[in-house]
């Protein structure tokens, strides 16, 4: 199975009738799916379609889309501000009539700041429907590229997670081997301790067996070993199986369960080797969970 990361970056560009565009998209980790669009003025109507296209492809991640437009034809990126020019001409005419100034030349008026200004919409002279269709087609290519980027990063995480899972499985196996001799080891240890405490005092054999059984039950970790083994199998099925859709949330939940069992193992362990296994498990689970946070 291929797992997908939630992080990625992609670009797509194109042009139509002298107007060029550049799409950029960035995706980072997120608990759910959140889409933000930064579009030029007048192109907000594309946002709904963009959101639907993204949600059809991805389940998790904070995704930011940005569209930038530019004119690629000389002379079409500027316009004359007619209203401002008329206002200036009227004002100048008043001074001319009063004899306070000479009639202004047009080339001088056009040279004034604000009379000639950049067009706010480089695509103003392009058919809106045709241009929107071209932008959405390009956006679809952008989303394809992002999906590929997230898949490639996920493919790099896959072997890392499997290696960490193998280490966890090895530790669980070692803990299981220790538990096989646990009753006898516990019995011998408790008897030795009680012999030192009681010395010559007499104690009923039945009472001793009851205490040994109680202590052995409290220290029994067979259920924890069984659950850890089950979690290893479930994780391997998610990573190597044919599960459809995102697996990040499920893997994160399993990591929480791994950590819970590792904590119980440490609290129950009265053996140095078993305690060390529990601590090693916690370290590995933390490392795995860091990687899982990147998975969709």
TrEMBL record:
<feature type="domain" description="Endoribonuclease YicC-like C-terminal">
    <location>
        <begin position="178"/>
        <end position="296"/>
    </location>
</feature>
<keyword id="KW-0255">Endonuclease</keyword>
<dbReference type="InterPro" id="IPR013527">
    <property type="entry name" value="YicC-like_N"/>
</dbReference>
<dbReference type="InterPro" id="IPR005229">
    <property type="entry name" value="YicC/YloC-like"/>
</dbReference>
<dbReference type="Pfam" id="PF08340">
    <property type="entry name" value="YicC-like_C"/>
</dbReference>
<dbReference type="GO" id="GO:0004521">
    <property type="term" value="F:RNA endonuclease activity"/>
</dbReference>
<feature type="domain" description="Endoribonuclease YicC-like N-terminal">
    <location>
        <begin position="3"/>
        <end position="158"/>
    </location>
</feature>
<dbReference type="GO" id="GO:0016787">
    <property type="term" value="F:hydrolase activity"/>
</dbReference>
<comment type="similarity">
    <text>Belongs to the YicC/YloC family.</text>
</comment>
<keyword id="KW-0540">Nuclease</keyword>
<keyword id="KW-0378">Hydrolase</keyword>
<dbReference type="Pfam" id="PF03755">
    <property type="entry name" value="YicC-like_N"/>
</dbReference>
<dbReference type="InterPro" id="IPR013551">
    <property type="entry name" value="YicC-like_C"/>
</dbReference>
<protein>
    <submittedName>
        <fullName>YicC family protein</fullName>
    </submittedName>
</protein>
């Amino acid at each position: 199975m291929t797992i997908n990361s939630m992080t990625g970056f992609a670009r797509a560009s194109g042009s139509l009738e002298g107007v060029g565009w550049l799409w950029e998209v960035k995706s980072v980790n997120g608990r759910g799916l959140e889409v933000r669009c930064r579009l030029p003025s007048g192109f907000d109507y594309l946002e709904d379609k963009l959101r639907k296209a993204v949600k059809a492809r991805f389940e998790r991640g904070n995704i930011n889309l940005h569209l930038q437009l530019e004119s690629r034809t000389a002379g079409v990126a500027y316009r004359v501000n007619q209203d401002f020019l008329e206002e200036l001409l009227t004002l100048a005419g008043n001074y001319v009539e009063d004899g306070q100034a000479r009639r202004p030349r047009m080339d001088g008026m056009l040279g004034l700041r604000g009379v000639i200004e950049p067009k706010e919409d480089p695509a103003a002279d392009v058919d809106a429907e045709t241009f929107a269709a071209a932008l959405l087609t390009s956006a679809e290519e952008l989303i394809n590229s992002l999906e590929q980027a997230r898949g490639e990063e996920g493919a790099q995480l896959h072997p890392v997670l499997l290696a960490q899972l193998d280490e966890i499985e090895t530790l669980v196996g070692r803990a299981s081997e220790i538990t096989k001799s646990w009753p006898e080891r516990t019995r011998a240890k408790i008897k030795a301790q009680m012999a030192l405490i009681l010395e010559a005092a007499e104690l009923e054999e039945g009472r001793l067996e009851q205490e040994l059984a109680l202590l052995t039950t409290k220290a029994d970790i067979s259920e924890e070993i069984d659950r850890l083994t089950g979690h290893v199998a479930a994780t391997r099925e998610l990573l190597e199986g044919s599960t459809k859709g995102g697996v990040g949330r499920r893997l994160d939940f399993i990591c929480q369960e791994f950590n819970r069992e590792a904590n119980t193992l440490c609290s129950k362990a009265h053996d140095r080797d078993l305690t060390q296994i529990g601590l090693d498990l916690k370290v590995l689970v933390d490392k795995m969970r860091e990687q899982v946070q990147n998975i969709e």
